[in-house]
Amino acid sequence: MSKVEHPDATVLSDEELRTLDAHWRAANYLAAGQIYLMSNPLLTEPLRPEHIKPRLLGHWGTSPGLNLVYTHLNRVIGARGLDALCVWGPGHGGPSVLANSWLEGSYSETYPDVPRDGEGMARLFRQFSFPGGVPSHVAPETPGSIHEGGELGYSLSHAYGAAFDNPDLLVACVIGDGEAETGPLATAWHSTKFLDPVHDGAVLPILHLNGYKIANPTVLARLPEEELDALLRGYGHEPVHVSGDDPAQVHRAMARALDGCLDRIASAQRAAREEGVTERVRWPVIVLRTPKGWTGPADVDGVPVEGTWRAHQVPLAGVRENPEHLRQLEGWLRSYRPDELFGPDGRPTADVLACVPEGARRLGATPHANGGLLVRDLPIAALDDFAVPVDKPGGTLHEPTRVLGDLLARVMRDTEGRRDFRLVGPDETASNRLQAVFDVSGKAWQAQRLPVDEHLDHHGRVLEILSEHTCQGWLEGYLLTGRHGLFSCYEAFVHIVDSMVNQHIKWLKTSRGLPWRAPIASLNYLLTSHVWRQDHNGFSHQDPGFVDHVLNKSPEVVRVYLPPDANTLLSVADHVLRSRDYVNVVVAGKQPCFDWLPMDAARAHCARGAGIWEWAGTENGGEPDVVLACAGDVPTQEVLAAAQLLRRHLPELAVRVVNVVDMTRLLPHEEHPHGMSDFEYDGLFTQDKPVIFAYHGYPWLIHRLAYRRSGHRNLHVRGYKESGTTTTPFDMVVRNDLDRYRLVMDVVDRVPGLGVRAAAVRQQMADARTRHHAWIREYGTDLPEIAEWTWNA
């Protein structure tokens, strides 16, 4: 990004001003045309109602400002030879970005059926917000986009994610003043404290204040300039203001502002990279104030529109039915003088294209917005280097995430030169036992440091900020521009990004249908400090429902894994870190956990996704009387403890133990690529035997996944049912009826003939639960038979 400075480039010549204004007017014309026109794109005949779309959809209010930014970014990219990416924050600014990518030719290169001529212009107009066409917001279909503009708040964190480890990239980020009111955007301003001027690119925020949301004024637009400047300086920026409604004056001011900001960015990067300066940079931010709906109708039906909230969407709504509106629309469109901007064949004139960069430097053609073109396979060492030895099931204990931390540290080390892997999380890397990564890379930090601090590093690749929104946005931007990463989070609090992951899943689903978008590295979650071992933090920290949220989404995109021990976690991590175009959720504990499977067996079990643990059951090759199923580390331990109790008390009972790692295996294969056929499912769980399923999360999820199976009527699920508090670890499972004693009672209740024959056994189990309640209230710890339990078949 550090290029030769251009101290004299802030003064536009009359010729430059003329061509920049031509480009801007052309973009405005195309943006308005997309909202209104079905035909007659060049206005070669008087406008008639049949030329107008039957449903007028789109957002005009933000479009002129976005067109101004795109036009002026073109100028500096070409003049300075920059590699640049722009994140378009204002939600439904699609008309502008589509218009500009069509003008520069990148749209027609991506979609040859929309050529850069009159025929292509007609298709560009017709397809916008039209059945079978493209959305009104900046979406995966839009060349040059990494940001789904349908939901507000994420543009700035995406921009910083794109800039991390991209030292030669300028990431401009247009932030709408409505979006600036969201919590995720407000926190993302703090990303300045994490951006390394040596190894990272630069982010240039452009805060576009046009004054209004859909129906209300915006907060930042109504602040006095002094107060707004104080806010932005407090975030670590130096504001540069551009404002006005006279196009010539705004063009000149915008050119000066951009050149000045880019000179300051280049100077800061040069100081850090060549002179070793380590002081935190105060990065520039442009505050752009232009009227909402600028250059559109000044008033409609006697009320003001331009510069008010009425310009937000469609300024002239009754064009087909109201001759005056139709006349006003034609006057508006002709005010851009399209005959000067496009030739008789509809192609943009040389003046319009004078500022457009060439090739991959065009914003719609940059490979950084199609990260799958840049992504490289992640080097992952052989898992045997990290696997824990397992001579017999349950003979040893390890903390699964600590074992995973060693693998992640190796990945960090092996990507040190290429810097394309990051670990993000909200202040929990060490808490989640992943601190081995600090032996290789510290935590990114550009702010003040004190002697007591640990692992802070100007050039670190671990990102910690106590904002799940910002972590998510950083990682999404990083992945979308061709890199790899992992998001580690407490299970209960990952819900904070429910809506963000929803948008990313939609992005991936749509991208899969676009052959020109290359697959990117998957978004990988490691959820730990989970519901069953948050006994010390209490009810507020106990929520396993993120899995439910994700499994509601597009089956071709989502995957959920619950590895039961350290070696299965290694196998799952190896798989998800190598995968493409998925959202992978991995739930694993950080507390000491029994080791059940040696590495080879763990690989095989994870490849199956669900399987019988013959060593744990008592079928002896025959047909089981009951199936004990489990998913998750604590449920697995409780099922094995229940199986051990059944061996002791009901040795004649044939028990099958089934462990599920991949939750989507429970779905029918017609509904999910990983799903089992009915034949496979019945072979595992039987058609007619009772299945007692101990599940990590909310029990009704298992019923939902398996409701179409022939044996569903025999399925009985135990899981978390919102009974939590500060208590002992075992009391958590007792409170939710997931404990070993309750599971044995379920077996007695549900296996035909056992109710009478094993009544004494059931009573012993109930008595054990009673002893448990009395013991923990007296001693504050779990029963010795629980705390000292080991697997012994």
UniProtKB/TrEMBL annotation:
Cofactor: thiamine diphosphate
Record key words, sorted: Lyase, Thiamine pyrophosphate
Top enzyme category: lyase
Annotated signal peptide: none
Domain Xylulose 5-phosphate/Fructose 6-phosphate phosphoketolase C-terminal: 590-791
Residue ranges of domain Xylulose 5-phosphate/Fructose 6-phosphate phosphoketolase N-terminal in the record: 12-373
Enzyme Commission code(s) on record: 4.1.2.-
KW Iron (keyword) present: no
PANTHER family membership: PHOSPHOKETOLASE-RELATED (PTHR31273)
Similarity remark: Belongs to the XFP family.
Protein name per its UniProtKB record: Probable phosphoketolase
Species per Swiss-Prot/TrEMBL record: Streptomyces crystallinus
